[in-house]
Write a structure and sequence with these properties.
This protein is α/β, with parallel strands linked by helices and 264 residues long. It folds into 2 domains: 3-48; 62-263, Uracil-DNA Glycosylase, subunit E (3-Layer(aba) Sandwich), CATH 3.40.470.10. It has 12 helices and 6 strands. The protein has helices at residues 3-21, 28-42, 62-70, 76-81, 105-110, 116-128, 160-177, 187-194, 200-203, 221-226, 230-246, 253-257; strands spanning 89-90, 96-100, 137-140, 181-185, 207-210, 213-218. The chain has a 6-stranded mixed sheet with strand order 1-3-2-4-6-5, with helices on both faces. β5 and β6 (213-218) form a beta hairpin. α1 crosses α2 (28-42). Bound molecules: iron/sulfur cluster. Iron/sulfur cluster binds next to α4 and α7.
């Protein structure tokens, strides 16, 4: 109760009691006290209430983050349709992260990003770079499979707003992994990560940035599976050579020649 309200109440109460008993007709003084009482009672409390302090910044640990992501219900339609959340796999202190757009049907089923034919191709690329799949942290911008209402199979491209809703989770994963470089696979993953729609051919081979970390955008393995020409394979490989250089890795002459006419 505010001080103003208490003072007004203390003044008005004895007078009110006497008026009620019929001992006194309402004196002028009580009118003022009553006015003050009414005013104090109806006054907005905002003046006496301190604004809430901002919530404390969460110090994410892997344990807390995994629990939060696996329990995330921000997108009710995706929660209803997903088999499970696809958190991400691999080395949680990796110097390199590979990031795709969203789980497809197989990923949703197995709970792991990049499985199936695209996953096998990514594994081959990673191994050609001199890593194992376990050396890298692999994740998607979106952790739940985009739903397919009325469809029994197939995958759809995630919408920009869906990726934007999920992006904070990836941001926290990147902050925990602290990679020295990120490879974004495909235009949709690049859009989700960087927030702008650009053609791969315009941005591949150049360094962009996410959270201060260098990002190399390259073609999605599904594109390479559809376009198995040496020219397209070489483009992706040249992007990977740039990544290896960024990481300070020694590149062998054999690696330099991959997917060139000379190597055939
Ligand atoms: S897509 Fe991302 S934000 Fe949406 S429910 Fe799944 S984990 Fe949560």
């Amino acid at each position: 109760m505010s001080d103003v309200f208490q003072q007004a109440l203390a003044q008005a109460l004895p007078l009110l009691k006497e008026v009620q008993k019929g001992i006194k007709s309402p004196p002028k003084a009580s009118q003022t006290a009553l006015k003050r009482l009414r005013k104090a009672a109806t006054a907005r409390p905002a003046a006496s209430v301190q604004p809430l302090p901002p919530p404390p910044a969460t110090e994410w640990t892997w344990e807390l983050l995994e629990k939060a992501i696996r329990g995330c219900v921000k997108c009710p339609n995706l929660v209803a349709s997903r088999t499970q959340v696809v958190f991400g796999v691999g080395n949680r202190s990796a110097e390199l992260m590979f990031i795709g757009e969203a789980p497809g049907a197989e990923e949703d089923e197995q709970g792991e990003p990049f499985v199936g034919k695209s996953g096998q191709l990514i594994t081959k690329i990673i191994e050609a770079m001199g890593f194992t799949r376990d050396d890298i942290f692999i994740a998607n911008v979106m952790k739940c499979r985009p739903d397919m209402p009325g469809e029994e199979s197939g995958n759809r491209k995630p919408k920009g707003e869906e990726m934007a809703t999920c992006l904070p989770w990836l941001r926290e994963q990147v902050r925990l992994v602290k990679p020295r470089a990120i490879v974004a696979l495909g235009a949709t993953a690049a859009e989700g990560l960087l927030g702008e729609t650009r053609l791969i051919r315009d941005i591949r081979g150049t360094w962009l940035e996410f959270e201060g970390i260098p990002v190399m955008v390259t073609y999605h393995p599904a594109y390479l599976l559809r376009n198995q020409t040496i020219t397209e394979k070489r483009k992706v490989w040249e992007d990977m050579l740039l990544v290896l250089k960024k990481l300070g890795r020694e590149i062998t002459p054999k690696q330099e020649r991959f997917f060139t006419v000379a190597a055939q």
